[in-house]
Amino acid sequence: MRVGLFVTCLVDLMRPRIGFAALRLLEQAGCEVVVPLSQTCCGQPAYNSGDRSAARALAEKVLREFEGVDYLVAPSGSCAGMIRTHYPALFAGDGELAARAASLGARTYELTDFLVNVAHLEHVPGDFRGTVTYHDSCSGLRELGVKDQPRQLLARMPGVRLEEMPAAEECCGFGGTFAVKFGDVSARLAEKKCAHIQATGADAVVLGDLGCMLHIEGRLRRMGDDKTRVLHIAEVLAGEAG
User: Fold this and answer.
1) N or C, where is the chain less crowded by C-beta within 10 Å?
2) Each residue of 114-130: pLDDT tens digit?
3) In sequence order, what E strands does the chain have?
4) Which fold has domain 2-117?
């Protein structure tokens, strides 16, 4: 099974170890992993900001880079959601490009969804020990149905105890450009999310999108919380949490 790993621009620039963790998990599942060196952004920021021309240019680049793989996998619900859900709309009525976008979208998965439902990963290599709580990122949950998949994988780790937070499915306030356009609202949402996290007493909050991670971690630290760790699900599962 030939799998293209879409690293995402945030992972590449801010926390590359998430990409290496995703790579380890895919290889653990028996996949031949392809990582195009020319990959950059999926085009979501431009798309959400109304710049369809820039979004299309980036989307066409992704189509070229990953067209030859059996599956495209991303450690991000928002990027996977952009490719699977919004690329077909972006190229609607555009003949060959529309068909190529629909084909790639149908083969695109968020990491935990792929590991559970396609690769059927049984052995999780990580050895994390502690209590965690899980935040459901909006795009993964609402566009791709990612809910039980990360929890199923965490349940295969004997050292992990999952303590669900109140309102786990509520937005953390990031929302990409939303956090820039509506800073005050974004900050209030983040404070509410962080209070829910702290109420669990968990050692770490685990989630599947780096944008949400950066937003939550920044707010926790501004609130004076230097103890609660903020980890990507791939880091925990692969034993790359440090």
Assistant:
1) C
2) 999 999 999 999 999 99
3) 2-5, 32-34, 71-74, 108-110, 130-134, 160-162, 204-207, 229-232
4) Rossmann fold (3.40.50)
pTM score of the predicted model: 0.96
- Between the alpha carbon of residue 138 and those of residues 64, 119, 145, 146, 147, the distances in Å are 28, 24, 10, 9, 10
Fold of 130-238: Rossmann fold (3.40.50)
The model's pLDDT over 13-70, given as tens digits with 9 standing for 90+, comes to 999 999 999 999 999 999 999 999 999 999 999 999 999 999 999 999 999 999 999 9
Distance CA 4, CA 36 (A): 8
Sign of the C-alpha dihedral, residues 111, 113, 115, 119?
negative
The residue among 178, 174, 124 whose CA lies nearest residue 149 is 124
Amino acid type, 91: F
Residues of the chain with CATH 3.40.50: 2-117, 130-238
